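Translate sequence into structure tokens.
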Amino acid sequence: PGADDSAAAITRASRGSMSPMASSSAGGCTGVGAARPRGWDLVERHVLIEGEPGIGKSALVRAAVAAAQEAGCQVFWGAGDELGQELPLLPFLDGLRVREPSANRRQNTIVGLLRGEVTADRGADVPAVLAEQLLALVTEQCAVRPTVLVIDDLQWADQASLTLWGRLARS
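Result follows.
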């Protein structure tokens, strides 16, 4: 398959749906799903790219993300980090750009939770509360316009991020 086929491997998300990652059998990459036609008429809710280092997984995702942006999708990109595993939900917080206050009320709630300005119920698991808020934020973003959420290097993500990813994949 050529570059156009690789770019078509990510399918555009429809309102209320999302496509967190891409997949293709191109260039030695294997994963869930298959290359999609140029018409972007199918919706893939989640896709995982797997493969050996250096075979072009990131290049495939970058090409597909560029095509998704050209098609009008908003794109959010976060990454797992071996050193960041002690920080719950970091790939999502970075990817969804929720570190600073904004006009978005949900983002401000998340920032408030991170800074201790908003408190969770006594005894509540703060990462779980954050995960619920991030899940709601992704849902809101998907309702605004087609959305692609990429979490690169998922193997380095913390457990809370993996759990949230699983919930997004099932939703």
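Note: Residues 1-42 have pLDDT under 50 and may be disordered.
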